[in-house]
Design brief:
InterPro entries: KH_dom-like_a/b, OHR, OsmC/Ohr_fam, OsmC/Ohrsf. The chain is α+β, with helices and mostly antiparallel strands and 137 residues long. Helices cover 32% and strands 28% of the residues.
Length: 137
């Protein structure tokens, strides 16, 4: 792959530290969620992953919609990223909830969401590694 863009971020002190991008646009405190034994006083890697995946999938949906000449500009994507024990370590699972405009019929919407799942870089990176459930609402 020839990278068109490379994002660079540095994290210090793990889940209870700080994450900063090389350009300084992202600079935030990290905190372990209460559900994982932390104080929840910052964002966490799962929230960051969810935000990135939702934004990326939304862009992919827009791309396939434009190609198909279907207006999905008012669609929204919500990513739910779960973390839990998996074998000796931990694993992730994702649910992508896609809300399509009322003007898009169910069959067309399903086809576009499935095409977006083939185009989205996050979907391609996770395919075969973690479960990703597509839900159209």
């Amino acid at each position: 792959m020839d990278a068109l863009y490379t994002a660079v971020a540095t994290a210090t002190h793990g889940r209870d530290g700080r994450a900063v991008s090389s350009d300084g646009r992202l600079d935030l405190a990290l905190g372990t969620p209460v559900e994982l034994g932390g104080n929840g006083q910052g964002t966490n890697p799962e929230q960051l992953f969810a935000a990135g995946y939702a934004a990326c999938f939304s862009s992919a949906l827009g791309l396939v919609g434009r190609r198909a000449k279907v207006d999905v500009s008012e669609a929204s994507v919500t990513a739910e990223v779960g973390i839990g024990k998996q074998g000796e370590g931990f694993g992730l699972a994702v649910t992508l909830r896609v809300e399509l405009p009322d003007t898009v019929d169910a069959a067309t919407g399903r086809k576009l969401v499935e095409q977006a799942h083939q185009v989205c870089p996050y979907s391609n990176a996770t395919r075969g590694n973690i479960p990703v459930d597509l839900v159209i609402e």
